[in-house]
Amino acid sequence: MAEAARLELRGPNAGPGGEIRIPLGQKAIIDVWLDGQGERIRTLNLFLRYDPLVLKPLDVDLDKDGINPFITKNYMPQPSEGLNGVLPQKGELIYGVTNVGSIAARGAGVVASFQVEVIGPGPATQIAVDFRYPLSFT
Question: What is the pLDDT of residue 135?
């Protein structure tokens, strides 16, 4: 199990502290960036929390049931999406991906992206990793 991986959320209009700035009524794509820091990464389970009065995750796959906010990117050589969902009343985003091939992911890159719309006013809000459910790397 990896002990030293770095995870960041990256988006447009980054502020001086790396924060993502999205005006009210606007949409933005946010990348889930991972640096395995030398570890072989085969699985990532990600749980994010957000304020549902301020942000609304958008469905990126209308052909699937439910709200599927994540788009799997090319960090994993052969990704297989296991979880892709949102609990809007609780303000939780859930994503899981496993590499099904024999080659594990290495280095740094974008694992997935998701799109949000700012629906409520507020000076600032956070999208944070929920550490009640630790990141899982194998």
Answer: 55
pTM passes above 0.85: yes
What type of residue sits at position 41? I
76 burial (CB, 10 Å; 0-12 / 13-18 / 19+) is buried
Nearest to 119 by CA among 64, 50, 16, 69: 50
Residue pair 43/64 in contact by the 8 Å Cβ criterion: no
Q: What's the CA gap between 11 and 9, in Å, rounded?
A: 7
Among residues 82, 32, 36, which one has the least CA distance to residue 57?
A: 32
Question: CA–CA distance from 84 to each of 73, 103, 108 (Å)?
Answer: 13, 23, 21
Q: Residues near 77 by Cβ (< 8 Å), separated by ≥ 6?
A: 99, 101, 103, 104, 105
